[in-house]
Design brief:
Blueprint (H helix, E strand, L loop, with lengths): L5 E3 L2 E6 L5 E6 L10 H7 L3 E6 L13 H15 L4 E6 L1 H12 L4 E7 L19 H9 L10 H12 L1 H16 L13 E6 L7 H10 L3 E6 L6 H4 L1 H18 L1
Parallel strand pairs: 3-4, 3-5, 5-6, 6-7, 7-8
Antiparallel strand pairs: 1-2, 2-4
């Protein structure tokens, strides 16, 4: 992605698109990066203000590492930027953070978009210590994120490997994963009233289709879209399909308001 991060105080973020555009906040997962959302950003930045805050999971003091701390960061960031209402989109752990933010701040939400979200059940590296230094293990785990292993480029695999190989970062990965498991949202999702779009890979191994189906059952005002031959990150593996579904959803909401 050619656009550069803005750094202001405790915040690092990408912000592109017209100043008066409807805001879409994109929340990345545990191993996420700007590149995960390149397809969304390039497609929507003409008509929408697209914002990607970098979640500070590796910058927080070790005692503060938790999903709750990431939610608080998002809350403070959105207040800092002065966004009145947002469409919040989360992938994997980012979906979990999005859901907790939505539950605590319903007045700030225009819509919710979840893709491969955690919050009910997930099976990635687990909550044990990842196999640091084992490149083939990390390569296989990263490839398993997708239906087509080739989507896991060497650059992406190297990013994950470098994270896991850094002991301090690896500890934070485990702490965040354990915190996510403790924050199961099964008994709270019925409280969400905002229009919710679920875009799920039919071949997701991390948050399998049964998880997407359960989100659909528990969130009353939700609609489900399945993407065939697709794993845990539909916006990366099938960006055109993903963007088409999202654009139709957002345009419909705008016409109804």
């Amino acid at each position: 992605m050619k656009s550069e991060l803005t750094e202001e105080g405790e915040y690092k973020y990408l912000e592109v698109g017209p100043d008066d555009g409807e805001v879409i906040v994109l929340l990345h997962g545990l191993f996420g990066a700007l590149s995960n959302f390149e397809g969304i950003t390039s497609h929507f930045q003409k008509d929408y203000k697209v914002v990607v805050p970098i979640l500070p999971m590796f910058e927080l003091p070790i005692k503060e590492v938790s999903v709750s701390a990431l939610v608080e960061h998002v809350k403070k960031f959105i207040a800092y930027k002065g966004y009145e209402k947002v469409n919040v989109l989360g992938n994997s752990l980012g979906g979990h953070v999005a859901l907790l933010y939505v539950l605590d701040n319903p007045e700030k939400i225009n819509s919710v978009i979840l893709t491969g979200s955690s919050g009910l059940f997930e099976s990635a590296f687990g909550t044990g210590f990842p196999q640091r230094g084992n490149y083939e293990f990390i390569k296989k785990k990263t490839e398993d994120t997708f239906y087509s292993p080739e989507v896991a480029t060497k650059e992406l695999i190297d990013e994950v490997f470098d994270t896991i190989s850094d002991r301090n970062k690896a500890i934070r990965v485990v702490k965040t994963a354990k915190s996510a498991v403790r924050h199961n949202l099964g008994d709270k999702l019925h409280q969400i009233t905002a229009p919710t779009l679920l875009i799920w890979g039919k071949n997701d191994k991390v948050t399998p289709p049964i998880v997407g189906e359960r989100f659909h059952e528990l969130i009353n005002n939700s609609e489900m879209h399945w993407v065939d031959k697709c794993g845990h990150a539909p916006m990366m593996e099938h960006p055109k399909t993903f963007n088409s579904i999202l654009e139709t959803f957002l345009k419909r909401l705008s016409s109804e308001n």
